[in-house]
Amino acid sequence: NMVMSFRVSDLQMLLGFVGRSKSGLKHELVTRALQLVQFDCSPEVFKKIKELYETRYSKKSSEVAQPPPPPPRAEALPLHSSYDRGSAVARTLPTPNIDYPALYGKYLNGLGRLPPKVAKPEVRLVKLPFYTTLDELLKPTELVPQNNEKLQESPCIFALTPRQVELIRNSRELQPGVKSVQVVLRICYTDTSSPQEDQYPPNIAVKVNHSYCSVPGYYPSNKPGVEPKRPCRPINLTHLMYLSAATNRITVTWGNYGKSYSVGLYLVRQMTSAELLQRLKTIGIKHPELCKALVKEKLRLDPDSEIATTGVRVSLICPLVKMRLSVPCRAETCAHLQCFDAVFYLQMNEKKPTWMCPVCDKPAPYDQLIIDGLLSKILTECEDADEIEYLVDGSWCPIRAEKERSCSPQCPILVLGSSDVNGLLPPPAGNGENGKAPADVVDLTLDSSSSEEEEEEDEEEDDDDEGPQPKRRCSYEKGLVSAC
Question: What's the whole-model pTM score?
Answer without folding.
Answer: 0.59
